[in-house]
Amino acid sequence: MNLKKAILFLLLAATAIGYAQKKKVAVVTFYANKVIDFTALDIGSEELIKDVLDLRENPNFNLTPLLKQFHSNFFDDYSKEFPFELLPEAKVLESEKYKNFQPKYELSNYDAKNYLVYDGYKYVYEGFNGKYNEEGLAKLFADEADGVMFVYINFGFEKGFGIGNNMTLKMKAFARMALYNKSGEKVFVINESERSKKTGVMVKGIPVLKPEKILPMCESALTELMGDLKKRIGKVTSKSEKKL
Fold first, then answer.
1. CA distance 181 to 188
2. SS3 (DSSP) at 197
3. Integer CA distances (angstroms), 88 to 27, 85, 97, 227, in order
4. Among 39-48, 66-75, 150-159, where is mean pLDDT lowest?
5. Where are the domains of the chain?
6. CA–CA separation, 139 and 136 (whole Å)
7. Residue 152 is inside which H or E element, if any?
8. Rounded to whole angstroms, how far apart are CA atoms 156 and 169?
9. N or C terminus: which one in the chain shows less Cβ crowding within 10 Å?
10. pLDDT band at 16, cuts 50/70/90?
11. How far is 200 from 36, CA to CA, in rounded Å?
12. DSSP class of residue 37?
């Protein structure tokens, strides 16, 4: 074997070993919160609470296309920036052990109205007091994956410009991606948010919550957020493989 062939063989062998050893992660929940957070407005009126809940149940306030777009970006684009591989969704969602897993804080019929869960996934709570779910799912997929990831998005109002009751309204989109290792220990959390370019209005200090006004603001905010995530994910996750 001449020198060139020997070098090529070693490079190919090193690549094969590196590929074989690449860590794998299972995405175990993927959803959007349909209740728009209004705490940043410093308004606690019963009228606003009712309007927000009514918007959640309005069929014209359809977040499905936005969730699908975020899902596509996540698996087709963002995943390329991870220093690990994602298990195929079918392997996760079609497994009987996932279907049979009973998460803590499982949604009641009333709570279920608050969330839009991507097809095939379960709503699984993650975060404060979420240890049971994080450790349980990590153990569930320990034979196939080195970690589990929880992904979700939500939206919140922000004050725009103006004074008193005469103010504009902005929308903010938030994304959270939390990765846990086989032991259920947190590896990283990505919390990102971006404001919409589109603006809404408030009348007498109360936001106008018509779907045709609010949905484009959500779409605008999510578009800005997805562009921001593409720039940041690689930097945030670059060293995460060592912790899996």
1. 10
2. coil
3. 9, 9, 15, 24
4. 39-48
5. 26-243
6. 5
7. strand 147-163
8. 10
9. N
10. very low
11. 14
12. B
Give the helix/strand (H/E) hosting 148: strand 147-163
DSSP category for residue 124: -
Token representation of residue 200: 């809404």
Geometric angle at alpha carbon 113, from 158 and 132, rounded to 5°: 90
pLDDT tens by residue, 88-141: 999 999 999 999 999 999 898 879 999 999 999 999 999 999 999 999 999 999
State the pLDDT at residue 206.
Answer: 85
Backbone angles phi, psi at 118, to 5 degrees: -65, 145
The two tokens of residue 86 are 């994602």
pTM to 2 decimals?
Answer: 0.89
Give the number of C-alpha atoms closer than 13 A to the C-alpha of residue 47, restricted to the C-beta side: 9
Q: Is 17 a residue whose pLDDT tops 80?
A: no
The answer to whether the CB of 168 falls within 8 A of the CB of 161 is yes
Alpha-carbon gap, residue 117 to 207, rounded angstroms: 26
Chain-centroid distance of CA 151 in Å reads 3
